[in-house]
């Protein structure tokens, strides 16, 4: 399979991965043949790329960092929790839902089990979902990324649970923000921005009243927009005044937000997002946490379509953890635009005259 931008998808192409709804359930399933109506509908729903089946790349299968069933259950739990708050505003100021902590301990426990079952983690979070699913998929992605950092730091089980539950629910305050602001395609006014920024305090207040949730988990909601240099909100905390869990969630939040398509901008590539994070080292984020985080990110995920500086077009086959910016690429189109009869692979770590010029 290979990942293709929606503008390059043609009628007759078949999906190699499903497209997901906001609750994690399938909108269009594996093997569905796309037609012009489906393609246009996906565009309308904010889907900017899909995985398609292709003879030359049929053996290229990206390994997800967590199992599909784990992701589905996690997204469904976040979806139900957040919609329960939206539908029952009276819950504000008291417990959000009975046994919320137990539910999310189980959910994050499954995520943690998947993460710990991998020998080496280079993260690929390239699930395909509609724009309405962003809040729920984003929460799960942030929890996965936070869990990876927590494991790398050697956190014990209780620490991992507090961090992971906080990461799953860090954006719960967004349920108090009107949908028209979340979906706005132009820049927010100062008044609108101030309103949106209240979601940190709103989320903290929703979670701190939950009897079976750690207050440290609630602080992930409160502090995830604080910045290392004190320029964040809501309290302008700096450096070690910000709890480390919240610092980890903040890095994961920004990375996943940048690499997801949003109504007001296209997605960043993973390499562009990593450049942004390093540029923000010791200003927005602790640079040591950024270094740790970036050790586990796949800059060019398997099945990504890329163009080399030679003009050749290929698909990423595998990554090398010691040279993440120089993966092995299977060439499918030569520099003159002709399709190759027999695809061949180039290991970029051994072909130093070649480099990836752009992601297609």
UniProtKB/TrEMBL annotation:
SUPFAM superfamilies attached to this UniProt entry: HD-domain/PDEase-like
For this protein, the record's Pfam families field holds: HD_5
Read off the CDD domains from this record: HDc
- Organism domain of life: Bacteria
Among InterPro entries, the record links this protein to: HD/PDEase_dom (IPR003607), HD_GYP_dom (IPR037522)
Q: Which residues form the HD-GYP domain?
A: 113-309
Q: Please report the name of this protein according to its UniProt entry.
A: HD-GYP domain-containing protein
- Native source organism of the sequence: Paenibacillus roseus
